[in-house]
Amino acid sequence: MTNQRPEADQAGDHSAAATLPTQYAPAEVEGKLYERWVAAGYFEADAKSDKPPYTVVIPPPNVTGSLHLGHAFEHTIIDSLTRRKRMQGYETLWQPGMDHAGIATQNVVERELAKEGKSRHDLGREAFVERVWQWKAESGGQISGQMRRLGDGVDWSRERFTMDEGLSQAVQTIFKKLFDDGLIYRAERIINWCPRCLTAISDIEVEYQDDEGELVSIRYGDGDDAIVVATTRAETMLGDTAVAVHPDDERYAHLVGREIELPLTGRRIPVVADAHVDPEFGTGAVKVTPAHDPNDFEIGRRHDLPSIAVLDERGVITVHGPFQGLDRFEARSAIVGALRAEGRIVAEKRPYLHSVGHCSRCKTTIEPRLSLQWWVKVGPLAQAAGDAVRDGRVAIHPKEMEPRYFGWVDNLHDWCISRQLWWGHRIPVWYGPDGEVVCVGPDEEPPSGEGWTQDTDVLDTWFSSGLWPFSTLGWPERTPSLEKFYPTSVLVTGYDILFFWVARMMMFGLYAMDGTPPFHTIALHGMVRDQFGKKMSKSFGNAVNPLDWMDAYGSDAVRFTLARGANPGTDVPIGEDWVQGSRNFCNKLWNATRFALMNGATVAGPLPEAADLSAADRWILSRLNATVAEVDALYDDYQFAKLSDALFHFAWDEVFDWYVELSKTTLAAGGPAADASRRVLGEVLDVTLRLLHPVVPFVTEALWTALTGRESVVVAEWPADSGFRDAAAEAEITTLQQVVTEVRRFRADQGLKPGQRVPARLDLAGTPLAAHEEAIRSLLRLQPAGDGFTATASLPVAGATVALDLSGAIDVAAERKRLQKDLAVAEKELAQTTAKLGNEGFMAKAPEQVVAKIRTRQATAEADIARITAQLAALPQA
RNA sequence: GGGCGCAUAGCUCAGUGGUAGAGCACUGCUCUUACAAAGCAGGGGUCGGCGGUUCGAAACCGUCUGCGCCCA
Fold first, then answer.
1. Phi and psi dihedrals of A687, rounded to 5?
2. Protein CA at A240 to nucleotide C1' at B70, angstroms
3. Protein-to-nucleotide distance from the CA of A577 to the C1' of B26, whole angstroms
């Protein structure tokens, strides 16, 4: 569209329409409009404003990421919410930014270095971190540009990054506070170790899947001391320090307390009794490797067993002997081979399907590893996070997702927060020469001098993401933004990452902000799937780049398709056909507005009084206001699919298909009625475009500015229901629609071409449609009945009769077939309603309105049968 | 193994006690002066099976079958 200076146009100026091409071309509109919005500062939030605040923080995408449909979906939801609130007069902040994605980003840069034949160790820590920043500056954060394409109304002047100075200070502040409160501690435990990323990861970064492994039964000890254990991890037997059996297991009672020989090593290990052993599983005896299995670690603790580590950080066997230097998987077969040679393999099951943990980042099999790490003691924090939802201060939407939240937050293990990476917030703890441990706050000088060193680990990325709702607003400073915009209003995120960081934000928000939760509502959405409901994945080959669809059909089309599928908490299937359908809707909107502009639709001046409006005008205004109310209610309930659908159907089925068509007759006639219609048309489009704007911002902006001559729909007022309703006008137009549809049906059944003019005589005396005769004739291509008019067909419908002269024989067979079908439907209806009304139980117990409704249906069926029977009788005999 | 959920038109999904709906797909006719990315008309479902509650069940209860997801 060439209309880039809408303020220069007058409302209703016919020249505005002349500049609109017959097809909507999103590519020519979207980019320019977005730049204008940003330049105008519409998305900037003012902390000094008197307006009530509405705040949403973006779930920060990874700095390594690019826009996928999941983002597009989530952003469409957030953008619609914030755009509507902005129009409603809230001081609206949609806070943008990214997280530093510790492991992912470090991996990206390490891969770059590898191409140069270098490792991060060649550069050293400082130079490597420098290199990561350089990478971020050059190729990180692609998603920011893509968010602009999507139309995201974020305040770019406030963009934040979790590694920024201010946010790093927030991290250090909360670390110190938690440390001082005893909620952060250091301990040696079994953690999830990725032998490829060479770092600890948290429980939720482990993905379990059923893998084909092996279950090997090994005989430990000999003679009377023999005991068979089953394991999927034979290679860890080198680190076994006991065999455990259930205390009540009589099979092994005689062995408890004795020592047996561990094969291949010559070591002697005890047999211990532990209630955690399942006597039903395998032989009821298990090998115990405290250094390489979390359950075994606990058994070891209970029985004071030593831990013998046999694998290094890369999963390579470290103990002396023939297996030293073998990878854990090579060692497994080597050790089974050696045991077999000694005749100690009692049974082998291969493949044996069992659940194995994998690194969510690189899919490498996780190695449980005993190591010294930093932990957050989550007990009191998780309790508070659960209580905030339990006592209603925070609502989870949809409510069905609550058990999922409680199930997790109430059973939370302590959170391992240290990572053996270089990219991230370095743990602010210094160790002294004499074993001192000092946690340093943001305003404190680290201890200096001989022998003092800082912890080399960094913090889990989620540690900083958990601070996002307040760190982005300036915390720990009590900034005006923090005062104005905290707590945020709603957090929009996928149910799949409810645990990853919603719970973390809740814990940290409540803890840091004196018990004020970071948001009052958690609105959960589902995942985007393909058109057959399958999960999108690169390996399956059904992943879609949203930018391709945005290029082909426009961002609005992608957004509208996603919004139409957004039922709370459920997954959203999307296919190209559906995006095309949304594009078609945008085009329809475009052309309807184009028609309105060509015909002088206007928003100038007040609406005429109801008395000066036609039934069609009153009908559409009644429907318009009902739609405003409906859409408002649906927005407040996060029902994006339903509100989008309501707007789609109101716009297309009512405004475009009927009101616009009816207005053609009125406009052609001219006079005051035409003036009124121009004003109503302008009103209906104005309000409809404003209602649609949050979901399809671009096309509505282009059209609304052209229609109204005003600055921007972004800052227009959100429509309000005027309360105007007109049931009589609605009934009148419904009757009109019935008459028109019935005659169209007859025309189609008779094989008349749509444009073919037919002489007709209308008898509307029994209806309120007298004023609509011209419109009905126009819609049905009916000519006046001239001299020699001979009715060859007479159609009774809704009290009216339309007589047509088809100048010749009609297709009696087609009409008979049709009428017989209608008759069958009416007869079935009569039978059903009559049966109900004859049912004593129904008559005695059904509510008044239901009985009345059935009576009406019965009467209608009877009338239909009479009418159709008469029509059939009137048909010429074949 | 524990928990949550789903099964409605060819596909994807709405529909929490009173006439089974939408989008897309499908069939026929049309360039009717906003729009063929369109218009008009039409076809299509024993609401997974069985049993129960009820005057009345797609909906509520039980059960079976099939399929998801989360946790262990």
1. -70, -40
2. 33
3. 15
Q: Alpha carbon of A2 to those of A16, A32, A234: distances in Å?
A: 10, 11, 73
Shortest CA distance to A568 belongs to which of A471, A647, A622, A643? A643
- Judge whether A732 and A768 are in contact, CB under 8 Å: yes
Please give the angle made by the CA atoms of A490, A206 and A241, to the nearest 5 degrees. Answer: 140
Q: How confident is the model at residue A10 (pLDDT cuts 50, 70, 90)?
A: very low
**What nucleotide is nearest A355 when CA is compared to C1'?**
B72
Distances (CA, A) of A77 to A227, A453, A569, A647, A805: 61, 47, 12, 16, 55
Mean pLDDT of chain A: 88
CA A58 – CA A64 distance, rounded (Å)? 16
Measure A212 CA to B66 C1' (Å).
25
Cβ atoms of residues A705 and A713 within 8 Å: yes
CA distance A702 to A700: 5
Q: How far is CA A662 from the centre of its chain?
A: 40
pLDDT tens across A472-482, in order? 999 999 999 99
- Nearest nucleotide by C1' position to the A818 CA atom: B42
A569: CB partners within 8 A, 6+ apart: A397, A398, A400, A401, A495, A524, A525, A526
* C-alpha to C-alpha distance for A590 and A594, rounded to whole angstroms: 6
Which residue, among A305, A306, A323, A307, has the nearest Cα to A315 in the 3D structure? A323
Reduced to 3 states, what is the DSSP secondary structure of residue A414? coil
- Who contacts A8 (Cβ-Cβ below 8 Å, separation ≥6)? none
Q: pLDDT tens digit string along A562-603? A: 999 888 878 888 889 999 999 999 999 999 999 999 999 999
